[in-house]
Structures
1.
Amino acid sequence: MKRLTICLAIGLALALVISFSAIAQEEEVKKEEILFWTWAGGREITMLESKITRFEFIYPDIKVKMQPLPFVEYQTKLLSGHASGTAPDVAYYSQVMHKMFYDRGLLEDLWPYVKDDKVWLADYRPFLLDVHTFDSHYVGTGLGGWGTAMIFYNVDMFEENGIEGPPKTWEEYLDIAKRLTKDTNGDGKTNIFGCQNDGSFETYLVLLESFGGGVFNEDRSETIIDSPESIEAMQFWGELINEEKVHTPWVGTPGGVGFTYNNVAMGVYGIWSNGFWTTIIGDKFKFDIAPNPVKVAKSAPLSSSAYGVAIGSKHKDAAVKLAKYMASAAGQIENAFMGFAASSNPSLDFMYANSPVWAGKDYQALAETADYGKLMPLDVPRWEEVLRVLTKQRDLVLIGQETAEKAMEDAAKTIRDIMAGKEVY
Amino acid sequence: MHDNKRKRRKIRGFSKVGSIEARWGYFFLLPNIIGFLTFTLIPVAVSLFLSLCRYDILTPARFVGLLNYSRLLRDSYNLNALKNTLYYTLGVIPSGIIISLFLAILVNQKLKEIVLYRALFFLPVITSMVAVSVVWAWLYDPVNGYINYILRWFGIDGPNWLGSTTWAMPAIIIMSVWKGLGFNMVIYLAALQGIPEQLYEAARIDGAGWWAQFRHITLPMVSPTTFFVLIMSVIGSFQVFDQAYIMTRGGPAEATTTMVYQIYVNAFQYFRMGYASAIAWLLFFIILGASLFQIKFQKRWVFYE
């Protein structure tokens, strides 16, 4: 409660300082209306409303019209909007969408607008500029930090079983998983599983990269999904499920049900789960996050969605102001309380670490992923097709229908065809 | 002569009135015609044109002739989706029809709370498919789901429903049958209530038992309804999408990828609008073929009074 009060007080103070400095000029001006699209829902909408209210207070000549759209149809609507000339001035763009829209010349280069703003740049993590920069064009300001996948572990379960801290290597991960996998009701069936990795691509990459493998090489000119390291990673994951039986049966879609039910001890999950899980788990048990286990290399795939400005916007200056404001410390205050990403602004790290959704968890470990994590290869051409191939072959290994070697070789063959520009059937 | 003149005047007068009425008729039809043209006929025509093009929404369409169609039958993803869709259709239709007829017979009883039962069975129909899919995905969870939990009471080790290439499609079929039961049940209920009671009375007098009455009276009398339900179910089942999209994303390993899912992926993930349109037209012809086949053979088993 005390932490929450401190955080709120700091937030309020920051907001007021910025606000009062901007309301000096009180002349009556005609409001310029900009259209803003988001796929946000629920609490995120409330958060955006709060930010927009503050933005409009600082820039009284700008009115922001926010339109939330369901995520499933968001990309389609955005495409249609751009095609018909009715695209929103500012919109959420996922990392994949950013590249796609940039390639078609539909996004404004924001670099000329931020390059001289030393204050803004000083409080913005440099790698987030890289995430949204294509051919030296910076086309998006971070939505709310960055996402990755990390170990989530049930602290109470670990302590009750005398296990000190999270695993640092995959060998330890397997060992701890074995110790925590149990049949507590004696019906001959496992009802507490030692581990469960989710179905997100981030988690997939964690396994591959920490074993020294990956989907593409450094310059993304060649796939390494069939490298011995990648095969070993997939074999390990498959064995957790099908041979060691310490991992919940593979369901495919992003999971986590077991963890929140208190019958999975740990797993690699997308960090965005933290906010929601903190709410639903409440006081049932204590959980924490930790860096991913290592075999050969530390791994943390980094991704970030962003605010983009449509190149045809009739209110470009106002739109850029909104995109910049939303990614500034003042515009990111509320994100500290959402708990689904790390802070894009170093000045907010303290507030994040002490906010109710991160308090008691190793937020520092998450912040440090910015130092060693790698950007996800989402900007390769025909990424969606690559992902479909990867998903299919991963599923075949994890449900025990294919060996890791065969599955990864099949994946590599198709990915090479895609990279060669061939149609893949 | 005079009579003929009067008759002609009368006809002219009549046709004038008729013409005014016809104009008013068209005027009142106009909103529907405009809606049909704007939201159905023109998009259908455009999709036919796009199926002959390469088009990604953001750049102008490029005419490629029949290239998209020639790819259709070589595309293993597409053939797999067609196979899965047929599997779904063959799974969902017979069970859906049999169970909904059985349910309709049950709720056709003269019981005090029968309206409540009818409402309860109809409830899934009006529930959002997205919400239902999310709940069923949770029910199917191999560790925490209630379905395997209940199966364990009977000593049955339930499968990994959505994580198995064998069970994922049956799982979707079971959910879809449950979801659609209420709709067919209501239609059957109306048909059952239209069967004259005297037929059953006469059969009973002749010593017919429950099964004989069902086989020789109920089934033939509801056969036009069965035909309607069959046609509608076939059309609906070939268009299955939501369940596969939400519960399995077409997985595991493409085991639940359906034709409409293929259209969605190609159109809105790969931006191959032309190819997606070609798949949509293939689906249209499959549905048309299935419907014509049923219409042709309905004379053999549908009895009209």
2.
Amino acid sequence: MRDPRRLLGGDASDFERELLRSWDAEQPSAAARAKVLAAMGIGAGAATAAAVKVGAAAAGGSLAPKAAAATLGGFAAAKWAALAVGVAVVGATAGYVRHEAHVHETRSVMSAPASVAAPPPPSIAPSIPLATAETAPVETPVAAPVVAVAEDAPRARVVEARAKAVPAPHPSALGEQVSALDSARRALAAGDAPAAVGALDDYAVRFPDGALVEEAEALRVQALLAAGDRAAATRAGDRFLAAHPNSPHAARVRALLASP
Amino acid sequence: MDSSSTRPAPPADETSGLDAGPTTPEGAARIRRMVDAEFAVVWRFLRGLGVAQGSADDAAQHVFLIAAKRIDAITVGSERAFLFATARGVAANVRRAQQRNREVLDDSMLAIQRDGHADPEQAMASKQARALLDRFLAELAEDVRAVFVLFELEGMTMAAIAETLDLPPGTVASRLRRAREEFHAAAKRLQAARGGAR
């Protein structure tokens, strides 16, 4: 099937382009993804759940430290990930994991048993609006034993390395990374592309090996385009695609570069 | 892809009663990879389907929790199809909830009203453009909207869309044509309305 040209790359009026390009600012926060992992008992922020489930599924033993390590490897987007590091194993057979919206609330959850009794919601619909940051904790149904294991190749080395030494990345460093990207995103959404580029420069200087570097570089392409600096955007995009051809952000970067 | 695969179209409402999720490390690792690879695109897809910004995180979380519960039933290679089918169900539920709570509906009108007072010489704020885009998307039938979002906004290829939405290629093409016609018409109308408001 031969694809038609996209409107942005072809027959769109200026006004139409404006509408279509407004989509560029759409991006989930880094913390949102971390919350999902934590809610599933995988990776970031969910050491308790992960450890519990590993204990249940693998009869304790050797997988447990690995699961804790996986939370380290999985902090790719976590403001609260670091909080989970080193949390003790709690025995339970959890069909449900309490999911909290706030970071500090999560901390208390992680020190509590992970078994929470509540029937699954009758349907998805009503529970979604409830699950905002301002409301009470929501009982989120979760697949029973979810086991955190580090299988992703890029992460394996990190996991291995950290499993030995265990020093967690400083929580504030992770939080700062997330904040740095959030401020870039906010600036972009507010139409202040130069400020977004500035925030990304700041990120690159402070966290050259940061966990969110791919996200940051993809965002840079978008910010540079929004700032009208197509040449710089193209260079940044080419660099990104050369370094991370299989990144989840690669398709978006390609689409950005293809836009007029 | 295996034709006997479980073609996922998990009606979002029907999954909550399922009891087991991944019972193996492999299942957990898979869902983990799905989150890493697809979270952002699923999140944006939900936004494109009309989920308000304030609900998108939770809606995306629901999508992945459903996937976690069903992970053992998701055929390897059709993960994205499963997620998108689930996202459509979740988005439909969220839209209904948003309609019940009209205050959530929507950041867009407020943004338009605010920006309506902006300096007329100033280029249209991206926020206002985004709100207008939302208004256009809301007018589209859901099936047409999904194709428009994935092709024009997300930059997916037609073939990928056909696979992801489990549609024949011809259907993707015809829905895109329809969406584009409506987009051009809506853009004229919105532009005129914007001009009139100044």
